[in-house]
Automatic annotation (TrEMBL):
Any one Gene Ontology cellular component term annotated for this protein: cytosol
Superkingdom of origin: Bacteria
Record's protein name: Transcriptional regulator
Example GO molecular function: DNA-binding transcription factor activity
NCBIfam families from the UniProt entry: rrf2_super (TIGR00738)
Annotated PROSITE patterns: HTH_RRF2_2
Classification via PANTHER family: HTH-TYPE TRANSCRIPTIONAL REGULATOR YWGB-RELATED, WINGED HELIX-TURN-HELIX TRANSCRIPTIONAL REGULATOR, RRF2 FAMILY
Taxonomic source organism: Polaribacter sejongensis
Amino acid sequence: MFSKTCEYGLRAVLFIAQESAHGHKVSMSKVSEEINSPQAFTAKILQQLKRNNIVTSVKGPYGGFTITEEKMETKLSEIVSVLDGDTIYKGCGLGLKQCDANSPCPLHYKFVDIRENLKNMLESTSITSLLNDMNLEGFILKR
């Protein structure tokens, strides 16, 4: 449903948030390793997240990426918007260029409900709430 960029971005944010919650900064290479993403691709994603003030970075030997306590309340919808724009809410379920209420694909009306539910979930879920869920369930990000 999400682009690869967005999938890796969400995983990167969660990993950085996990580490930030314990007072740690993480290097780009460590993020790349933990989310199983190519380093150059990870670097571009992290740059985009930094440019949009979702993550912060400190240069130097004791540097790395972190997420501030304030930014832990960022909703997933903001991250998705930064990385994928709003196409997830508007695109055709079959990927057709011409699909709308006037010219619907066979999935159009079923997909309207799915997109609305997804939008509601992304707009109501913060980084903090996901971290709490991950801690309760013993979820390990790296698979």
